[in-house]
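in:
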């Protein structure tokens, strides 16, 4: 019984640390981490919880071996490395500091090496149980270092961005500051199709994060003095991701209205010419939005020749990078609808159609 406790308690402790760390990472994983430029060898997101679960089990079993047969002096070192492991989640994800995370994980590497080296003679099984963990955190050190190098965090500046249509004269009003745009309606005005809580998170938190990241990233770069749409068309990596998401979200929120009017005649004629009818366009657009795998945006865009098309873009994609003019957009990142519709994207799309400001879409033609 005593031996079982020596194994079970450390394993449960490790898993508890993993659950708490995961809760600290949740918001960053949905709104900050996806905007970073990551290493070419970054595994799919699903790999991380599976790998950490297995590694935490091995870590707990390793301590169990030490408690039963090993040198008890290394128990303190085991707890120390677990604490530093937990601190990495705070520094990197909760505080969103790649530099602090990198320093922390290098310290963790050293502690784990010392533990493996120390227990290897008296309890070699405890050392071997830690080898996969050591390999993983060395790989994580590479990932963290790459993110730190490719996503420099500089002194913050801002870029003024009003809630006027990004396709209008707004770009000529840019100064050196990016700030949150003002919604052209009250936060609760779109309810029940889109709740106040959704806007508080989608507009108030997600968009704010993209703007804050963009402000930090453009300092000291050629993008610091560029209009937002020009950054979207010229940048790549983290700067593109955050600039495009800032532009996309501003455009998206600006095209919503609590008092929808009929589709203007000139827009109806253009949609009918290209798609056969307004209803046929809505059906094709709905299929594209429902069928886009993962996160992204679906757009109605206009070519320089005046042809209309439906463009599906993954992640932060924007049709301006293809030389097309955006007319309408729907955000199908899960954060756009999870509060109101959970995982029911089709329900979100149906509700969104009732909020489209057709007058603004027509004005962009």
């Amino acid at each position: 019984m005593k031996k079982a406790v020596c194994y079970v308690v450390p394993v449960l402790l490790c898993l508890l640390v993993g659950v708490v760390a995961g809760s600290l990472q949740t918001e960053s994983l949905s709104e900050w981490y996806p905007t970073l430029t990551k290493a070419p060898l970054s595994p799919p997101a699903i790999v991380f919880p599976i790998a950490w679960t297995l590694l935490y089990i091995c870590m707990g079993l390793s301590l169990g071996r030490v408690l039963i047969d090993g040198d008890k002096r290394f128990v303190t070192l085991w707890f120390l490395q677990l604490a530093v492991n937990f601190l990495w989640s705070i520094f990197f994800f909760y505080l969103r500091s790649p530099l602090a995370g990198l320093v922390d994980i290098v310290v963790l590497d050293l502690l784990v090496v010392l533990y493996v080296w120390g227990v290897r003679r008296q309890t070699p099984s405890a050392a071997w149980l830690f080898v996969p963990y050591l390999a993983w955190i060395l790989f994580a050190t590479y990932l963290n270092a790459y993110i730190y190098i490719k996503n420099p965090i500089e002194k913050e500046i801002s870029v003024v961005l009003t809630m006027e249509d990004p396709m209008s004269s707004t770009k000529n009003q840019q100064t050196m500051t990016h700030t949150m745009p003002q919604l052209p309606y009250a936060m609760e005005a779109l309810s029940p199709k889109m709740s106040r809580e959704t806007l508080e998170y989608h507009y108030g938190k997600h968009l704010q994060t993209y703007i804050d990241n963009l402000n930090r990233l453009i300092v000291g770069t050629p993008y610091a003095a560029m209009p937002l749409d020009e950054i979207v068309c010229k940048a790549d990596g983290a700067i593109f991701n955050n600039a495009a998401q800032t532009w996309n979200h501003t455009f998206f929120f600006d095209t919503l209205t609590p008092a929808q009017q009929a589709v203007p005649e000139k827009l109806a004629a253009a949609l009918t010419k290209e798609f056969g009818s307004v209803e046929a366009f809505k059906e094709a657009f709905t299929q594209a939005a429902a069928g886009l795998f993962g996160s992204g945006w679906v757009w109605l865009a206009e070519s320089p020749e005046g042809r209309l098309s439906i463009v599906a873009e993954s992640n932060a994609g924007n049709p301006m990078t293809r030389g097309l003019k955006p007319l309408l957009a729907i955000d199908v990142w899960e954060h756009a609808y999870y509060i109101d519709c959970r995982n029911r994207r089709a329900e979100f799309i149906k509700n969104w159609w009732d909020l489209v400001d057709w007058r603004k879409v027509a004005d962009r033609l």
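note: Strands lie at 296-302, 308-314, 325-331.
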